[in-house]
Amino acid sequence: ATRSLKERVLDQVVAHLPIALWAVDREGRFDYQDGRALEKLGLTPRQCDGVSLFEAEEGSELAGEVKRALAGEPIHTCDEVQGAHWDSWVVPLRGGDGEIEGAVGVALDISPAKSAEEELRSRLRQIEKQQEVIRNLSTPIIEVWSGVLTLPMVGIVDSVRTADVMDSVLQRIVEQQARFAILDLTGVEMVDTRVASHLIELVTAIRLLGAEGIVAGIKPNVAQTMVALGLDLSQIVTQRNLRAALSYCIRKMNPPQLTPSPSPAPVSAKQTPATAERG
Known about the structure:
The chain has nine helices and ten strands. The chain has 279 residues and is an alpha/beta fold. The protein folds into two domains: 5-110, PAS domain (Beta-Lactamase), CATH 3.30.450; 138-253, Transcription Regulator spoIIAA, CATH 3.30.750.24. The strands form two sheets. A five-stranded antiparallel sheet has the order 2-1-5-4-3, with helices on both faces. InterPro entries: Bact_StressResp_Reg, PAS, PAS-like_dom_sf, PAS_4, STAS_dom, STAS_dom_sf.
C-alpha cells in the first residue's frame, strides 16, 4: 500500500532529526519508539514494545509526567539524561472521538545548543572580567598620602563608569579609613547632566562616610557645562589641580600650631619697680 504523506514526513523527521519519539497506551505500555536520538539513550526502535513504562520507570519523573498527560495535561520539560540535554514534551493522544487513548512523547537532543550556550556564557564572563580590569586601569584609586585617596579620571566619563567609580571609591574609603578622596578631572574633556549629577552624589556619599570629597582639575569647558546645567556646587570643595588638592588635604590634617608669645622677663625678688627705675 502507498504510504501517506504524513507517514513519509514522519519517517524523514525521525531519520534525520536528533529526536526520540514514543507513544504509550492508556495502561502505559509502549507501542511505538523511533528516532535517531534513541541511540544516545541506549535504545533501538521498537525495542520497548509492550513494556509497561509505569513498571520500568516506577516512581520516576517520566512516569508522573505520562500520568498527567493521560489525564489531559500537556507537559514540557528540559532535563539532562545520560549526559545529554533534552527538550521534551509529553502530550495526550486522542482518538477520533476526542477521548484520550494514550500519550505521545517527543524528546529533542539539544546538547550541541546547550554546549554552545555554555561556551557563550563562559566567553561573556571572560569579557566581563576583562572589562573590569580595563575599568580598574582606566580609573585607578591611588593612596597618594596617608588617609588621602585620589582617583584620576581620563577620557570619556559616562554613567556606567561613574557608577562603578562610586562603588569602588566608597569601598576603598571604608577599607582604608581614608579622610579625603580627590576626584581628579584633569583628563576629562566633557561631562553631561547625568555624569555631573553622579559626581555630586559621589561627593555627598563620601561626606556621609565621614570623609571629604574634593574635585580637582576641572577644565574651563567642563566648568562652563556644570554652570550651564544649573548644578549646585556650593557644597563641593574644588581645587585648581591635584597638587593644590593634596596641599589642601595636608593642611587640613596638620593645621598650623599657634606659637605662644614670649613671656616677659621675670622681675627679681630683690628689685622693686622703684629701684629698677633708679638703676
